[in-house]
Amino acid sequence: MTFRKLATNLLTLAAVTAVLAGCGAIVGNRAETRAAQAEAAYPPTGQLLDVNGTTVHAHVEGTGPDLILIHGASGNTRDWTFEFVDRVKDRYRVIAFDRPGLGWTERLPGFEGATNTKAESPSEQAALLKAAADQLDVENPIIVGHSFGGAVTLAWAMDYPDHPAGLVLLGAASNPWPGDLGALYGINSSRVGGATVVPLISAFVPTSRIDDVLTSIFEPQTAPEGYAEYVGAGLTLRRESLRANAQQVNSLRPHIVEMSKRYNEIAVPTEIVHGTADTIVPLKIHSEPLSQQIPGAVLTRLDGIGHMPQHVAAAETIAAIDRAAARAGLR
Length: 331
Description:
By secondary structure, this protein is α/β, with parallel strands linked by helices. The chain contains 16 helices and eight strands. Mean pLDDT is 90; it is low at 1-7 and 9-21.
């Protein structure tokens, strides 16, 4: 190779690098702008607690026995405060938490940043939220976990057996499933995906795509009127939240494998609620086995209901909470 050709190649490489760097700056700036807009539009609805240096968002309302609500993947406390908290705050002190990296709760130390590939386990998330609950003087709570939040609820019950008075599990991820979760979770969890794909999604995903995701989550029902505007999907589309969600979901199965061996340790009243039409967390894979693994667990099958019973079957969900509270001697 001649010096002239080498010089030409170096100039070409420099030009390409400059273009890519410019594109990266454009993507980064747009992602930051959209994140700032989302944070302005969807501020914390509750209080921000300092839990050993990690900020935890807790929405607290109502009076009565303590009731903890834990949201699922891609969610935040707004899933609960849309309507559900108003339905139960007349007879429970309701505490809804954002899980690590989602909503207004920070990731745990050591899990932050675009190059990180680790995810907070259900047990690590439960430990953080339990410490936050302690700050709020929570005693003998009924803990409700939806979807991924169900795995956190189960870890909480096993790791702190003397804390909860009862459990309510809604479409909970609880048992090992066949196959994988699709390529996007793996890509968004990786270092390369964190540096390239995640910023692109954060910067450019259209509103129509968000609507499509909500449709798939609620099928065969539909989201309540006003839910899409209220829930704050823009918070989930922030780069750090996209990473946290992808990594937590992508790494969940090995934890579930180990957790499922211990479900017989759970000794508190447990109510399991699951829609028969749930294709996201299928009833037969998760809650039907779980109802046999936890001593005394009661399974309520909701005929034709999908993955969001707290919205489309709220009365049945609340009835399960009341049953758990009554079985625990709280009502």
